[in-house]
Each structure stands twice: as C-alpha cells, then as structure tokens.
Design a protein that fits this description.
The complex is a heterodimer of chains A (474) and B (460). Chain A is of the alpha+beta class and 474 residues long. Chain A is 21% helix and 40% strand. In chain A, the strands form 4 sheets. In chain A, strands 1, 2, 3, 4, 5, 6 and 7 form a 7-stranded mixed beta sheet that branches. In chain A, strands 9, 10, 11, 14, 20, 21 and 22 form a 7-stranded mixed beta sheet that branches. A 5-stranded mixed β-barrel of chain A has the order 8-15-16-18-23. The longest helix of chain A is centred in the N-terminal third of the chain and has 17 residues. Chain B folds into 2 domains: 214 residues, PmbA/TldD fold (2-Layer Sandwich), CATH 3.30.2290.10; 123 residues, no CATH class. In chain B, helix 4 runs parallel beside helix 5. The chains are: A alpha+beta (474), B alpha+beta (460).
Chain lengths: 474, 460
C-alpha cells in the first residue's frame, strides 16, 4: 500500500496504475469509466463546558471506480490502493454496470494542469496543537465575558486536507490538494424566558492563516450577543409579511428557492419546477444569480470539481431570465455539452452528482437603509439558518436564527426562532428590492441524497414582498 | 440483470475484527485506558429509472476508532482502513491528542456492569446471500407498482433498494470485549402526481432486516396515496388548530425530543427538561421509551457505543419525566449509572449519550377514531426544515408542513405551504390522543398517530 502511494506529496496514485485500472473497468465493455483516488486527513478540537473535551484526528484513503454502460452506472469503492485491490473494485463496478460487450479499450491519460487561485500559507497540520487549543480558550473567555446570562459555551476548531486524483476513459487526468479550516462557537443564554442559543462560524478554503484575518474572540462575542438578544425576543408573527434579508445573512434563500431546482440531474427527471424554462423570465428583473466555484478562499471554492473539470463561474439567472442549469459529467455527456464543473462527491465512497459551489446573488442598486425604511410592517432577518426544498413543487423552508420586527420602517424588537416558508418561483418573482451591499455568508454544508459537501453563499440586502412567517403570534 | 461478485477481501470475520481491537488494547501503556472499536460494513444501493438500473453501488468498507484516556484527558483518532500500520498510527495520534485535552475527573471508559446483552438475532443473512439481481428486481417492482398505482402518478424522482450489513467489535482495557452484528434493508420511492399544472409529491418506504422482508406493494401504495391526495392543495388561513400528526411526523419530532433527553444535554444545561425529573412534563397519555432491545425497531442493537448491553429505558412515564439516557462519562458526572445509551456515528466519532430506538407507547384509539374525536382540525402529513426550525435547547418549534383539513371527523381538502408553530414543551402537554398504530420507520424513532391541541398554523 505504501509503495504505490509513494512518499511524494504530488502523487497519490501512479498514473500508469490508474490507466491500467480503467482498462480493467472497461474490459467487459462500457461507455465510460472513471477512477477517483482520494486521501483525506482531518483533525478537530472541541471545547465545551469550560473544558477542552477532546482532540480527534483521522485519515481515510481509497478509490471509487465507476463504469457507465448505456444509462446504467456501476460503482464500487475500496480502501485498498494496491493493483490487486483496484482490479477487484474495477471488476465489481463493471459487473454492477452490467458489462458484457467485451473488447479492450486503451486509455491514454493526459494530465491536465490545475491552477489554484489560492495557495494556503500555513498548512494547519504543521501548527502546534496547543495553539489550536488556545483559540478555543480565547473564544470561551470572550463569549462568557459578553454577559453573565451566558451559561454555556462550546467552540470547535477543525481542519481538513483533501488530495485527490481523478482519471477517466476520455483520457482526462487531473488532481487537486485543498485545505479547509473552520471555527465555530455556540452559546446558551439563560433568562426568565428559558434558554436561548446563538451560533457563529467562520470557514474558508485556506490554511491556518484564517486566524490572522479573523479574530475568534470577536466571533464568540457575536455568538453570545445573538443568544442574549433572543432572551428578550417575542414570538415571531404568523401569516404573510414582507421580509428584508440582510447582506451575507441569507444566501440559503436562493440555495433552496432555486439552486437545487437548477441542478441538471433533478431537471432531467422532471423533478424541478424550473424544468424546460431556460430563456424564460423566472424571477424579478432584479435577480442575477451566479454559481461560482472559482471564488478563491470561499468555502465552496474548488480548483477542479471531483470529476476533474475546472471550476467555472456559471450565470444561472440573468436579469430574471433563466440562462442555464448546473451540470456534471454524466448529465452533460447525455446532452452533448460540456460539464459546468458542478460534479461533486462527499468522498471516494460516493458517486458524484450535480452540486452547487458558491451561489451568489449579484448586488443591485438599492440603498439598504431605504429598503428597511420603505417597509411599513415586516420582518428583518439578519441571519438565516438551514433550509430544505421540495424541488418538484418548489415549496421550501428556511430557518431564521436572528430576526427582528420592522415597524414603520424601523427595526424594532427581536423575534424568536422560526422557519419561513415559500414557493421558489413565486418568491423569485416577489423580490422587489436588491441593494448594492453584497457580502458572503458563513460556511455551509449542503446535503443531497445523503451526501454533504461544503458550499458558500452570498447576498446583498434584499426584500421579498411576501413570505409566510412560521411564528406563533397572531 | 446485474450480478456482482464482491471483492474477496470483504469477507468479514468477527474474530478478525476482535483481533485488531485486542492487539491495540494490548499496546496500552502504564496508566492509560484504551478503547478500540473496529467496524466493517457491506452495502448495496440500487437506483432504478424507467425500467433500467440507473446506478448500482456495491461496496465494502472498514475502519477503526481509538480512544485513549490518560490522567483524565481524552484523545481520539480514527482510520478508514484496517491496515495494521494505520491502526497503530491512530493509537499514537489518539495518545498525542489526549495530551492537549483538559483534565476531567469524570473522563474514562465504560466499566463492564454485569448486564447481559439481549439475545437477539438482528442480522438477516439474506442481505449478503440474496443475488444482486433479486435486489434489482425489488427496486424495479417498486417503480412499476408506483407508476401503476394511480393514473395521476406522472413520474418518479427516485426508486431504490438499499441494504447494509455491519459488524462492530469493541474491546478496552477496562475489560469490555464484545461483538455486535446487524443488517437492514429498505425500498423507497419518491413519486410525483400531476393534474394540469399541479404537481405534488409523496414518498413511500418499507424497512426490514433483509430483502425478504421489504414490501414493494405497500411502498408503492403509500407513495401514490401521499402524492395524489395532495393534488389541488392550497395555502390555509392562519389560525390555531388541533393537529393530528401522521406517524411519520411523530417519529421525526420524537427524534428531536430525544436530544433533550440526552444526559449530555442535561449535565451541560442545554435541556429545558434538565431540572424537571419526577415532574409532569407531558399529558398523561404520553409514555416515551428508548428501547434498542426491541427486535422490531429498525435501529435495534444489543450493544451500545461503549460495548455495554443496551436496555429498555422509560424516559417519560404517563406524562412524568422518569429518566434521561447516559453514557459512562455523563453518568459519572450526574452520579448515576450508564443506561447503556452511548451512541456513535460510526468509527469516526467518540461516543456520546443519546437515544437509539425511541417510541411512544401506543394508545387504544385507531387513527380513524382520533380523527372522529378531533372533528375539526388539520392532519399533518409531512414536515420540512426540522433541523433549522426546532431548537432542542429552547424548545422553540416551527417547521414547514403539508397536510389535509379535518372536517366533521374526516380527512378533507389538501393544504400546503404552511408552517406549524409551538414549543416542544407545549406539544408534550397538548397531546390529547395517542393512536394504536405504532409504525416502524427507517430512523431511530418509531411513529404513531398523535393528536395535539392548540398548535399555530401559519398560512395566508
């Protein structure tokens, strides 16, 4: 095992072995084969209840092999990167894809140059564990100092390095070596009204220099303030109201309202309200939505996707008109078009599928203060939580983790947590203001068919004419 | 039809896994506690589309997690392989990680407590022995049956069969040494019903220990009913209603309630139930049990994540808060004994206290009786956004929902794009009836029809 993975950081697996594995995968026929070899290391440290509870570290390494025959994909994976292990997995994938045609296909691999627009300055694995633990303590102290009502604090640091090489029967050979670093703080505040929580996180596709640019004490204080603010919060209203979403706080709105519905795999099955609508006006003319894997340092940044295609800036909606969907290799191949660089997978143990990267709403011309001032009665959402969508009906929900009432054009009282519910196409049409103050939001993990991948999002301040607020107040 | 010969290296032997664990445990140094979990699993996942296999995954994987506790400091490391060198590296890494943790007087591994693991067979050899072609046929049968169930079913988003067979061995320096083996299989389908421009969706599933136990027909019928009955759904006006929760919804809410009953949340002051042991926290009709020894539970297991025997724990008894669930660490801290409730998310995580197989004890009213008793209300078929809309710390609850109006004791017109809002606290005390229709779910909680008074519906 160690012989083939070599000691060099550049070569995870010998290209000749990959070519040989592809030959084996196609030995009984097939239209397309791919080998994806990955070496993933992660480490984390967790503080809770005033104690550094534990540090963990782990490593997984292996290869996933898929063989496509007609409309059928066979997939197998193995942690055994020896020639014998790869051969067995290739045979299993070929059998799963129902191969039977016979014939040997020679594959000549051509290495594709991968340009990373950002190189981590400090590999987290080179940093002393004591320094990482120090960050946790600093966050804990800062959150507790924010107020005596803060009764519980937890803080987590995590780093991940993922190297992979992918080769396919089209001759593609490409690899990447990426580092992500994440820090989060969660707080509990106790008061007469019970317990409230606050959470803040910062994560970028960078190394340990993350902490030169961001102060964990500030992050912790914000998490504490959020919990403290909510102690005085009143129940959110119920019914339909205008909703203003603050810059950087609400990219999940677009992720759910239309992002998933623009993934070509769901579109192809008719499981999207946006199927067959390219060229049509699907949103307010104020909406230009872009999925952009090339934004250096952002959480959803990828140099190449997990199928070896360079990340791209894909305009999905321009001035309200649907311009294109997002594509992976398989779906693009069927349509005879190039992949848009959106083929992603959680790990070598998973099949790639169409996934978002960084999904952003481009800035408009409105003034954020004017947007609030021109809202008589509504809700201001400073920070959204997670969401969920049914792409076939377009109905989606997303949580508000920090929200306020807007009364007579002023932000007034804080509101307790709740979900908002809307219908994608309707909400896109109902966007009636977009400000010029764009900001990226916190790092996210997008789940689809049980696979989680890191995604980013960003929005300027914007307003939706009417959304249903899932509160309990009349 | 597809056939798959699994790689021969996937053959699993319980003694081999225990051997890996024993070897590392024997490497413990003076004053050190070492615990090793070694797991191996084989999985099949088959997706079909339009009468053909869309994708077929046949995979085996194995790995180990190592926990080291030294002078009250805990460290952990894992490896996604059983390569002996990699396992030794994990032990070294766990040892080094422990040096940086805070000293905790309650830290430490579980000690054997003399409780004998339940004598259950939770593994169906059919998962490994049944030819892949048969499993493919089960998925195709689900697809065919769903499309044939109702002419308004226009397409399927997915139809699949999946199974898993897993073996986990655990050994430690405190004398824990055990092996657990279980399997699971399910078929599921996600159907789209259409009428004019209106499209609605519905899912169906069937779970069992092995392929012989899953029912494509029941799965299809369920998905078709769920999708077609939503056709023509409109947004309801806002208001307060008695709601009747579908067993699927009850199971998901039980899962969230389970978080508040974890000893971990309790000892750290993150549960609104923390100080209420012995008090009435729910309506008298509510008895909540966490019982991984129930062989019918999808997540049944004879061992917990620390190798102790699982057991039946009554958490809410006739409305009174009776117990929380503890692992060794939180039990020591709370001054009680472990309830055999250490849960792990695979070998890559440390154990923590949690519920493993929750259920609400069924009542004696049928779902139809309950609708009749309620008379006027809203039947909630499905919820969305639980992870963002329910806060187990504060108890605040708000989630997206779809369902049917209940009029004159019967299901009436469909409703969509609304939310239900309450708190977990009010939901528990507001229960007016528990159905007799305990339903097994593909998750760590079972469902039952549940009627709850005074829930806010937010719509137009």
């Amino acid at each position: 095992m160690r012989d083939v993975t070599t000691t060099s950081d550049d070569v995870l697996i010998d290209p000749d072995l990959m070519a040989q594995t592809l030959r084996g995968a196609l030995a009984t026929g097939g239209d397309f084969a791919e080998v994806f070899a990955e070496d993933r290391r992660s480490a984390s440290a967790h503080l809770d209840d005033g104690r550094v509870e534990e540090l963990t570290s782990g490593r997984s390494r292996g290869a996933g092999i898929r063989v496509v025959v007609g409309d059928t994909t066979g997939f197998a994976h193995t942690a055994d990167l020896t020639p014998a292990g790869l051969r067995a997995a290739a045979e299993a994938a070929a059998a799963a894809a129902r191969g039977g045609g016979g014939g040997v296909k020679e594959v000549a691999l051509t290495r594709r140059d991968v340009a990373r627009s950002y190189q981590p300055e400090v590999l987290p694995e080179t940093v002393d564990k004591g320094t990482k633990v120090g960050l946790l303590r600093r966050a804990d102290e800062s959150a507790r100092a924010a107020g005596s009502a803060i009764t519980q604090v937890s803080a987590s640091y995590s780093e991940g390095r993922r190297r992979f090489v992918v080769a396919n029967s089209d001759g593609l050979l490409a690899g990447d070596d990426g580092v992500r670093t994440l820090f989060s703080v969660s707080t509990v505040a106790s008061g007469d009204t019970g317990l409230q929580t606050g959470r803040e996180s910062i994560g970028h596709t960078v190394g340990f220099e993350l902490f030169d640019q961001h102060d964990v004490a500030e992050l912790a204080e914000r998490a504490a303030r959020r919990a403290l603010t909510k102690l005085a919060a009143r129940p959110a209203p119920s019914g339909q109201l205008p909703v203003v979403i603050g810059k950087g706080g609400g990219g999940v709105l677009f992720h759910e309202a239309c992002g998933h519905g623009l993934e070509a795999d769901l579109v192809a099955k008719g499981a999207s309200v946006f199927a067959g609508r390219v060229g049509e006006q699907v949103a307010s003319p104020l909406v230009t939505l872009v999925d952009d894997g090339t934004i250096a340092r952002e959480w959803g940044y990828v140099a190449i996707d997990d199928e070896g295609h360079p990340a791209q800036r894909n305009v999905l909606i321009r001035d309200g008109v649907l311009t294109d969907y997002m594509w992976d290799q398989l779906r693009a191949r069927k349509e005879g078009r190039p992949s848009s660089g959106n083929g992603r997978r959680q790990s070598y143990q998973h099949l790639p599928m169409v996934r978002m990267t960084n999904t952003v709403l481009l800035a408009g011309d409105d003034d954020p203060d004017d947007i609030i001032a021109s809202t008589d009665h509504g809700v201001y959402v400073a920070h959204l939580g997670g969401g969920q969508v049914n792409t076939a009906t377009g109905d989606f929900v997303f949580g508000m983790t920090e929200a306020y009432l807007i009364e007579d054009g002023q932000i007034t009282e804080p509101l307790r947590e709740g979900n908002l519910i809307g219908n994608g196409p309707q909400v896109l049409t109902d966007i009636d203001a977009v400000a010029g103050d764009f900001a990226m939001g916190p790092p996210g993990t997008c789940g689809k068919d049980g696979q989680g991948v890191p995604v980013g999002d960003g929005v300027p301040t914007l307003r939706v004419k009417a959304l249903t607020i899932g509160g309990t107040a009349a | 039809m597809a056939t798959v010969e699994r790689p021969s290296s996937a053959a699993v032997d319980e003694e081999v896994l225990l051997g890996h664990a024993d070897r590392l445990v024997a490497m413990a140094q003076g004053g050190e506690q070492v615990e090793v979990v070694v797991a191996s699993e084989m999985e099949t996942e088959i997706r079909v589309h339009k009468g053909d296999v869309e994708s077929l995954t046949a995979a085996s994987s194995a790995g180990a997690g190592v926990r080291v506790v030294h002078h009250g400091r805990q460290g952990f490391a894992w490896a996604g392989t059983l390569d002996p060198d990699a396992l030794e590296e994990a032990l070294e890494a766990a040892r080094d990680n422990a040096r940086f943790a805070s000293e905790d007087p309650h830290a430490g591994l579980a000690d054997p407590d003399g409780v004998t693991p339940a004598d259950l067979v939770l593994h169906d050899p059919g998962v490994l022995e049944r030819p892949t072609a048969d499993k493919v046929e089960l998925a195709l049968e689900v697809e065919r049956a769903t499309l044939a169930a109702d002419e308004r079913i226009v397409a399927l988003e997915s139809a699949e069969y999946a199974d898993v067979s897993e073996v986990a061995a655990i050994a430690s320096t405190t004398g824990i040494r055990a092996v657990g083996r279980q399997s699971g299989a399910y078929v599921s389908v996600y159907a789209m019903a259409g009428e004019g421009d209106d499209v609605q969706t519905g899912f169906g599933y069937s779970v069992a220990r092995g392929p012989a136990g899953v029912s494509p027909a029941a799965t299809a019928e369920q998905a078709a009913l769920r999708a077609t009955r939503m056709l023509g759904a409109t947004k309801p006006p806002s208001g307060r209603f008695t709601v009747v929760l579908d067993p699927w919804v009850t199971a998901q809410l039980l899962g969230v309630l389970g978080v508040t009953l974890s000893g971990e949340m309790v000892v750290k002051g993150r549960s609104f139930l923390a100080d209420r042991l012995g008090e009435e926290v729910a309506a008298a009709a509510v008895t909540v049990v966490d019982d991984p020894t129930d062989p019918e539970a999808f997540t049944a297991a004879v061992l917990d994540g620390e190798g102790l025997a699982t057991r039946r724990n009554v958490l809410i008894d006739g409305g009174t808060l009776a117990s929380f669930v503890y692992d060794a660490h939180t039990a020591r801290r709370a001054g009680v004994r472990s309830t055999g409730s250490a849960v792990r998310r695979g070998v890559t995580s440390t154990p923590s206290a949690g519920c493993a197989a929750l259920s609400m004890l069924p009542g004696d009213r049928s779902p139809a009786d309950i609708l009749g008793d309620v008379g006027d209300g809203v039947y909630v078929c499905d919820v969305a956004g639980l992870h963002s809309g329910v806060n187990p710390v504060s108890g605040d609850l708000s989630c997206g929902a779809e369902g049917l109006r209940i009029r004159h004791g019967e299901l009436a017109e469909p409703l969509r794009e609304f939310t239900i809002g309450s708190t977990l606290q009010r939901l528990l005390t507001g229960v007016v009836a528990v159905g007799n229709d305990r339903t097994r779910m593909p998750m760590s909680a079972d469902g039952v029809t549940l009627a709850v008074a005074d829930v806010t519906i937010s719509g137009s």
